[in-house]
Amino acid sequence: MSDGPAIELAIEDGVAIATMMRPKQRNPFSADFLACMADIITECGRNDEIKALILTGTEGVFCAGGDIKGMVERAQKGDFPAEDIRARLYDIHDWIQPLRNLSIPVICAVDGPAYGGGFGLALCADFILASENASFCSVFCRIGAIPDCGVLFTLPRMVGIQRAKEMMYTGRPIDAREAKDIGIAMDVYPTGTVLAEAKALARRMQDASGAAFAITKRIANQTFDNDAMTHVEMEAAGQSICLSSEYHKDAVNRFVEKQPLRFNWEAREAAE
Predict the structure, then answer these.
(1) Rounded to 5 degrees, what are φ and ψ at 206?
(2) 3-state secondary structure at position 260
(3) pLDDT digits (tens, 9 = 90+) for 74-117
(4) pTM for the predicted model, two decimal places
(5) Exposure of 224 by Cβ count < 10 A (0-12 exposed, 13-18 middle, 19+ buried)?
(6) Among positive and negative, which fits the CA dihedral 48, 50, 51, 56?
(7) Distance CA 115, CA 99 (A)
(8) Which of 70, 81, 82, 205 is at a distance of 20 to 30 A from 237, taking alpha carbons?
(9) Phi, psi angle pair for 197, to nearest 5°
(10) Domains of the chain
(11) What is the DSSP letter of 186?
């Protein structure tokens, strides 16, 4: 591996930008990559100054996930026992699950391939913005493996079970336009502009209620897992918190007094 961190974190006006820095190796899930990712998610979860997180790559590469060459070498040597594989996947999920439930907006700016575990990483985001060069692939079947890094959970919820099965069974790459058509990418942008678009999206959400966003995200992430009455209880509990918050009281006062609201998506969008 090259020198320097596997991922660099920069904070710009309240937006954390995590840039994967090993494009020549296709940003594999190396030990230091996993450690960096865990540290970044912890920092974003505890730093109140961070209002959004963007994950991106460099030089036209997002992330290819597992180090397939290393996996093949270990398999050939016979020194990759099942318990080690299991432990490694638990280590990955120690940060994948917190990433999915991070209480701030998470945006993936994908320029180039998001394959295997890198595809799973992208599917953790609230929003996937793709460049015209982006591609997505559940590549696991090509090496006789099952989808991991949460793909078996997140992909059917994103595109429906039939399309997810087709992607998982065939390992067929999905280009940016198809990714938008089937619901993986929210939007597609010209190459070289996707990171700027991700930053603009993050800025537009900065003035929203942090509590309301976090609660909405937690409940929405469980939409397909709970029955209707469970959601009624979650909704009631969440709304009781939001409607008693200072943010809500201020918003109501502003509305009554015909003052501009703190969070105005249309105004933010027009100002970009």
Answers:
(1) -65, -30
(2) coil
(3) 667 766 688 888 988 999 999 999 999 999 999 999 999 999 99
(4) 0.93
(5) exposed
(6) negative
(7) 18
(8) 205
(9) -65, -40
(10) 7-204 (3.90.226.10), 210-271 (1.10.12.10)
(11) S
